[in-house]
C-alpha cells in the first residue's frame, strides 16, 4: 500500500522513477517498492519522500486516510514540527525576515540571507527554490533600504525582477496536478513575487488542498495565512473585488468556529479594505477594534504589528507605490 501511495504522489508531480532514483534508492528498488515487492527502511522512505517534496507527516496522513482512519477534531498544538530540510531552511529565512522587519536593518538582512544561501547546497529542486526566495527577499530589502534613505525607487522594475526570478516556482505549481504541503508552502511564501493574476488563479487550488488534507496540522494553519496573505496582495494592487471575495470566504470559513485570533485578523482586514475603498472612518474604526481585542487578549506582539500596519495603511493609501504591505 505504501508503494502505491508513493507511486501516485510521484506521478502527480510528473516525475519518473529515474528522476527520484539515486545512490540511496536505485531505480530497480523503487520499482519493487511501488509494486509491493520490497519493504523499505525508515531512512530510505524518508530520503525517497524528500526527492518528491513530500514530508513524512503528510505521507503518513495520506496512508491513514486511505485506511479510512478519522482525524482528531479536539486536539491542537502549536508551534508545529515537520520533517525535511525545506521546512527547516524556510523557517530560518523567515526568522531573519521577522528580525529585519523589526530592526529595519536591511543591509544585515541581506548579509544573513547571503550566508544562508551558501549553506543551502542547491542539489534538489526544493533547495533551488529556497535560494530563489533568498534572492527575492534580498531585492525587497534593497528597495526598502533605498526608500528609508529617501532614494527614489522604481517599484515596477522591482516587481518585474521578482516575477522573472519566481517564474520556475510558478511553472512548478502549474505543473503539479495534486498539490501537497510543499506546493502550499511555495504558494504561501512566494506569492508576493507572482503576477497578481497568477495569485488569483492559484488561490482556489491552494485553499482547496488545505481542506482536503485538513488532518495535517500545517494545512489547517496555512488555510487562513493563505487567505490573509493573498488579500493583502490584492489590496496592494488595488484588485478590490478579489480582496472582497477572499474576505467573504474567510468570514464563511470562520463562522461559529470559535477561532478568536483569525476572527480578529478578519476584522482588521475588513477595515483595511474599507479604508482603501474610501470609507476611511469606518475602516479605521474596524482596524482599531481589532487592535483593541489583541490588547485585551494580552497579545502585545500582534498589537504592535497591527498598529504599525494601520499606520502604514493610513500613510500610503493615496499612492500605490508609496509602500506595499504584505502579510
TrEMBL record:
SUPFAM superfamilies: lambda repressor-like DNA-binding domains. GO terms for molecular function: DNA binding. InterPro entries: Cro/C1-type_HTH, HTH-type_regulator_Rgg, Lambda_DNA-bd_dom_sf, Transcription_activator_Rgg_C. It holds the Pfam family HTH_3. Residues 6-59 form the HTH cro/C1-type domain. This is Transcriptional activator, Rgg/GadR/MutR family domain-containing protein. It comes from Enterococcus malodoratus ATCC 43197.
